[in-house]
Amino acid sequence: MRPDTPAENVDHNAEAARLERSAGLYPEDTESLLLQAAAHRELAGDRPGATALYDSLLQSPADLENPHLVRALKASNLWEYDHEAEARAIIAGVREASPRHPAPWLIVAESLESHDELEAAEETFTEGLRLLIGDADAPPQSTHPLLYGRHRVRRMLGAAHDEWDMLADTLHSSSVSLDELHDPKRIWSLGSDNPAELEAEIARLRAELGAYREALSRPFPVAVLHWPATELGELVSAYPTLAVEYPSHEEHLATIEESLRELAASGTPNLGIVTGTVPSYEAFAASEGTSPGDVALLPQYATTLAARGRAVAWPPERGGACWCGVGRVYEECHGAQ
């Protein structure tokens, strides 16, 4: 659940500095950009620098989108460089606050787990799941890592499977089962002289590492640009040359869904939608030294919004609201076909 960071061949200090500069240029995205910068500071070994970024967010006068996540990340980082007492206090505060987002629960539970606090980690995973999914048979995608983490910790503790463990088994899609991935004894096979056992363990580790990298180091999504009706009307009125690209709002929405379905059918992963505004687009055009009426600028604008963490995943989760913003369930709106 860490913010997106490229996995390899990155100068993390340079990337952190770039993101910090971007935060100054795009104040509306400060939280997302500084969280990514802090992640790079951690990867570079500059843990005090990461703490300073977390503190700057927490002390900001602006309201944070997810303050509990910032606190959880700060606690995890502090514990890694011998500030255990402060980290424990923050973790206790996050748990007491009962955040309604899975990310803070995952960060603090994994922090406890990594320091061999397995019972406390299991309690934290359970608290988060009880709050966020209750008795739901189909938990949201965002809560799946909590189910997997709880399964892992309970496997380490030798606890018998319960309903949530079985649910985690059902949701897990890898060819290697969770019981295998989370088997405490599998590490013993690494000391084996049997090539077949070593090969099997390597395959399991690769599967686990692949899933972990996919979760933590996703590339920016292939993003399609969406204009709400009022914004599109203002855009086309101010820049008539774009009317060819956007003959009507209804056609614009239909084109978005059609484009995304074609990309999905071709096997393109990690699709998303970014929502534009006229002031933001004009500011982007000015930064590029180009007229906002230039049609070629539109995909660049979409890519920039995605890089700033503004993309929303497509398709929405089952039962979720449609991306078009009318308030209807996706399956009953643009996902109806």
CATH-wise, what's the superfamily of the largest domain?
Tetratricopeptide repeat domain
Helix/strand structural class: mainly alpha
Q: Indicate the proportion of strand residues.
A: under 5%
Sheet with the most strands, sense and barrel status: 3 strands, mixed
Task: Give the count of structural domains.
Answer: 3
Strand order of the largest sheet: 1-2-3
At CATH level 2, the architecture of the largest domain is Alpha Horseshoe
Helix content: 55-70%
User: What's the pLDDT, averaged over the residues?
Assistant: 86
Word description of this protein:
This protein is mostly helical. The chain has three domains: 12-183, Tetratricopeptide repeat domain (Serine Threonine Protein Phosphatase 5, Tetratricopeptide repeat, Alpha Horseshoe), CATH 1.25.40; 184-218; 222-332, no CATH class. It has 15 helices and three strands. The chain has a three-stranded mixed sheet with strand order 1-2-3, with helices on both faces.
Key terms:
3-stranded mixed beta sheet; Serine Threonine Protein Phosphatase 5, Tetratricopeptide repeat; single chain; disordered N terminus; 3 strands; 337 residues
In short:
By secondary structure, this protein is mainly alpha-helical. It has helices spanning 12-25, 30-43, 47-58, 67-79, 84-97, 102-114, 118-132, 144-157, 163-171, 178-181, 195-216, 229-238, 249-265, 278-288, 297-307, and strands at residues 222-226, 271-275, 312-313.
Question: How do the strands and helices of this protein lay out in sequence?
Answer:
Blueprint: H1 12-25, H2 30-43, H3 47-58, H4 67-79, H5 84-97, H6 102-114, H7 118-132, H8 144-157, H9 163-171, H10 178-181, H11 195-216, E1 222-226, H12 229-238, H13 249-265, E2 271-275, H14 278-288, H15 297-307, E3 312-313
Parallel strand pairs: 1-2
Antiparallel strand pairs: 2-3
